[in-house]
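Task: sequence design from structure.
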């Protein structure tokens, strides 16, 4: 079950002990009450169970194997964390260690990065499987890669730390993987990367809530490589804001319903417009990562929104009660109090960049967007 084709995910950061604890909380997100963290829906890492029954990772000195069905690990344990440097694991179980010896990991010494390995669920394993009856093979993963490539340029816009995403294929009997796609921020400007992280730093500061406020913008170039050749480079402008004191947002945060709920409400919004020439942009909603929903605007709109359970739309509707009503009103408050003013800032900046030209008028929506997105137009 641990062998065969697998999807690898590499990141150059190292897991902390807290990270190891949190990733083992199946069905729960430890980020829900952490204002500086993007994840809050409890489905981030758990989405790997669409692909696999036995995810694992190696980071620092530790190998972590997870078996939520308790079928494969000794003593029917749901997971096991091993210090492979102290043990040493490679000498005792060389065949089991072999799949982890990639991207600079030798399974003998400290690994200054994190490598996930997701063995693909076979057709046989999917039969009567309590986690998922979906099976995956190499062709299925390549199809997922193609879908990802469609979002490859915009996916970096609202992330705070990630600068570069690559897709690679490692063929059998090859000594190293081959890059087929790369999306990266084409800049070495540290001021740009500090600007991307500015709101997160403010949220994590010791300042009083009312003083945790920021509004700003930055420009960046995102380049796409396919099979080693440049496919495109586009320049973008990103606006973002954090403000706890606006009329609608403060009213919600001071209400009893918001004070009683466990999940965090963070008044963080943003939008991104493409400055370089290209086809008219079909704007999508984002909650830091793209949501498969077109807003009707020619810009991308990002917010710390309350999302539907399947993460395909933001929560909205009429005649709602309780927490559902709060979630809908929160999304409206972000659109009215944050996105509307940011859109006005964008249009003002666009007059300076484009003047009274067609490129300027293309930043206006062609028709009135449906609710709740129409609230942005109302607030301009």
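Answer:
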């Amino acid at each position: 079950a641990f062998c065969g084709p697998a999807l690898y995910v590499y990141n150059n950061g190292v897991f902390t002990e807290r990270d190891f604890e949190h990733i083992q909380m199946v069905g729960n997100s430890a980020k829900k009450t952490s204002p500086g963290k993007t994840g809050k829906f409890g489905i981030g890492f758990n989405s790997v169970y669409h692909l696999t029954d036995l995810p694992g990772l190696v980071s620092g000195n530790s190998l972590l194997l997870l078996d939520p069905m308790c079928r494969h690990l000794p003593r029917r344990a749901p997971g096991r964390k091993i210090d492979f440097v102290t043990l040493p694991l490679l000498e005792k179980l060389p065949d089991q260690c072999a799949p982890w010896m990639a991207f600079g990991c030798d399974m003998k010494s400290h690994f200054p990065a994190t490598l996930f390995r997701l063995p693909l669920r076979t057709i046989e394993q999917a039969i009567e499987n309590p986690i998922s009856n979906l099976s995956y093979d190499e062709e299925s993963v390549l199809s997922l890669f193609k879908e990802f490539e469609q979002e490859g340029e915009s996916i970096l816009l609202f992330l705070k730390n990630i600068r570069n995403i690559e897709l690679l294929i490692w063929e059998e009997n090859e000594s190293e993987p081959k890059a087929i796609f790369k999306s990266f921020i084409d800049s070495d400007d540290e001021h740009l990367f500090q600007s991307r992280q500015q709101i997160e730093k403010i949220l994590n500061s010791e300042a009083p809530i009312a003083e945790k406020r920021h509004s700003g913008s930055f420009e960046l170039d995102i380049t796409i490589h396919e099979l080693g050749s440049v496919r495109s480079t586009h320049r973008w402008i990103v606006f973002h804001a954090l403000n706890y004191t606006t009329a609608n947002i403060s009213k919600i945060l001071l209400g009893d319903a918001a004070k009683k709920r466990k999940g965090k409400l963070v008044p963080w919004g943003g939008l991104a417009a493409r400055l370089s020439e290209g086809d008219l942009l079909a704007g999508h909603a984002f909650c830091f990562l793209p949501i498969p929903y077109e807003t009707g605007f020619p810009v991308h709109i990002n917010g710390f929104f309350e999302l539907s359970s399947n993460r395909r739309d933001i929560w909205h509707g009429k005649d709602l009660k309780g927490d559902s009503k709060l979630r809908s009103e929160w999304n409206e408050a972000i659109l009215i109090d944050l996105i509307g003013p940011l859109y006005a800032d964008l249009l003002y900046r666009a007059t300076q960049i484009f003047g009274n030209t067609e490129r300027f008028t293309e930043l206006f929506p062609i028709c009135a967007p449906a609710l709740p997105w129409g609230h942005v137009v109302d607030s301009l």
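The first strand starts at residue 6 and ends at 11.
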